[in-house]
Amino acid sequence: MPQRQQLLNIIHGCVNSNREGQKELYKLYYSFSISICVRYCHNPDDAIEVTNDGFLKVFKTIGNFSPKYQNIEASLLGWIKSIMVYTAIDNFRKNERYNHQHTIEEVHYAIEDNEECSIDKLSYKEIIALVQKLSPMYRTVFNLYVIDGFKHEEIATQLNISTGTSKSNLAKARINIQKMLQATNYKLYEQRRAI
Question: What is the pTM assigned to this prediction?
């Protein structure tokens, strides 16, 4: 974790398009940034591309960065996270034009959340692996709502869909994740029985 003055120097260097400052910022926050982008992308190559696109936006707009908290690093992390999420959304919208569009009915499925399920026992990497198996639309809506805290109205605006479609996609994403968990649990059960 960089000291306050060191971070201010790096930011100042980036504002002045100093390559060393940009390199330092990139090295400091690459892991953080890719961990956000990988949730939205189907494969690691796409996540790297989105992360790098996000850093280009960071470098172009860092002059507009204004700390919202006394802790500059916390402010910077929130600002970078926002840029990475919106870059991932832009990437999704760009690629969605080329993907087959599915008709999605406007139905909201209720899922019981009051009982502990298999997902509670999974590691972060295992959860991300399941999320990455979802279709691009389900994955994007799931990430925006569950992980990044967007409201359905915000998701609808960002993805140019209706609020009902956002709710439906989230419900279907959860159902698909539950099915994948059940399949994983069944495989583990069968493996244990075979021993």
Answer: 0.76
